[in-house]
Amino acid sequence: MLHNIREPQSLSRYITCIQSFQRYGPNQSFRCITYLHDNSVKVRGIKKDPVTYFKNPHGLNYSDLQESKYHDKIRERFHFDKFHIKLNANIILQCLTHKSFAHGKVPYNEKLNLLGSQFLKFRSSIYTLNQTKSFNSLGSKDSRNMIHRDTLSQVIKDLGLRPMVFWKKRDPVRGATYNGEATILSTVLNSLVGAILIINGETKATKFVDELLLNKNSKHSLINATKDKIIEEEDK
Description:
GO biological process, one term: mitochondrial translation
Structural class: mainly alpha
Number of domains: 2
Radius of gyration: 23 Å
GO molecular function: ribonuclease III activity; structural constituent of ribosome
Distance between the termini: 67 Å
Domain RNase III: 67-201
CATH architecture of the largest domain: Orthogonal Bundle
InterPro entries: Ribosomal_mL57, RNase_III_dom, RNase_III_sf
Protein name: RNase III domain-containing protein
């Protein structure tokens, strides 16, 4: 016997309730799957429409990306042609997708981030040694700031890629600091480095990091972003 469940009138145009009847021995129970179609109404216990969680915080739809407008923009901003770097569209998208997005149902960048962060730490250590000629400089504040999440995330922001990153906020009404946006954006840069290392090899990855990210003459280098971070801290 299928029982009807009435919805409050105020929610009728926002919610679709699919009812299914299940029998467990003498007992009867219901499983009601509901989707929230309009973000203006929030009801505890109601699941979002799957379509809604395939959009990033800036409203970009994961399923509607065009390579000429999305992937090619990444390639152009990071000068892939100059460094003879080849990354296919799927890998680029994975690099810009955090595991918090879409409940982890799509490829995300966690392992690429780990690999890239270690390689970036290695190259930044070599850069520091070449600049100071002293092992005492390793682990210094300047050295740490160079690969700090705030520095890496600032590069992503400066390149205008912030609206292109796929992730989910812990609380949509709270600010960037509470939601850990800097950490999320830093994984993008680390992941791109990791992907370049795996697919294009150490030589090209080294050239990319040293000549673009660790070059003070590069407009969007970690060196310049580090200086901006230090100035900002001194002004506080």
